[in-house]
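Researcher: Please predict.
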Amino acid sequence: MGVRRIGVTDDDRAIADAVSRYAVDVLVPHAAGIDEHGLSATRHVPGLSALGVMGMNLPESLGGPGVTPTAVLLSLVAIARACASTSSMIGAHYLGTDAVLIGGDPDQQQRWLPRCASGEWLAAFALTEPGGGSHPAELRTTARRDGEEYVLSGSKQFISNAAESTFIVVFAKTDPAAGANGVSAFVVPTASRGVGIAAPEKLMGIRGGHAFAVSLDGVRVPASHRLGAEGTGFRTAMKVLDNGRLDVAATALGIAEAALDAAVAWTRERTVGGKPLADKQGIQWMLADMKLRLEASWALTMQALALRQAGEPFTLHSAMAKLHASEMAAFVADRALQIHGGYGYTRDLPLERYVRDARILRIYEGSSEIQRNIIARALVPSSPR
């Protein structure tokens, strides 16, 4: 684990160390191939499941290992340090299962979550749409009540895990005129008639974390598949994304740690004029700036985690952690590549992959601009009209 961090227990550290050993032994050797060939990171689900990772966000009563959110985050950092595609795939699975955990009743949780915890089932989360992102006023997917069923119609975009998932939690308008208060959440089995899933998107980075366009053409699901009351779906989604933004921060921390470790090792090995790069003050200052930003992101993330673990509101702190960490990862990965010079720009080293993988972190689970809106609203709430 390296640096000891306040709030991390011995149990948390032991869990993360076990995941880190698996990541080094299993994920690292395959990371370049997954990226090069766009192979799905779901190939690692059996091994991750054996460690309990696929259900780490779930309580023991639902098949999870019953670990703390801190242990989950540290484990995701270790996985992202080895393979960001795998971390992204797990994060998408957590979004889907968190939606059932947060929005579902005990019967729904028992029906859908234990097999997700075991890795037998994979989950997906479908909020984003082609025309309007995830803004509730722009959602066009509808869910019309028809007796004891709902009929869903519409399109979703960039849905991670969709083709490999057993079910997708879909957010749709049950009352199109009610804005955010008209959004409801549904568990939609992927094999349902009318569900269409396109070929995986050709992504710039995290190429093993497959994302898909999903179409819903008159898909019928029982009313028992609705999570919570009608109109509560968007509130569920926002609570899920509070958790998800910490998962994104974890991925950012993992990428940045891998990039910084590579840069430090390179400066010790690479010589210029007979002396190692590490002796150059300009290089030392670059490394110092990278470490400073990385540790600031760790501090913001651990603060948000502490609030979450204490059951306190953490929306603001989750947004700050996600924003800072995602922008930090881009900075650190870019500087690490710069330190490697031309070698960093080749595919023989992982630096260019770190740069590409880090780029999406400023976009998904709420872009950097959305996070700034959340932070600003906490400082200057909108005046009532």
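Model: Residues 235-379 form a domain with the Butyryl-CoA Dehydrogenase, subunit A; domain 3 fold (CATH 1.20.140.10).
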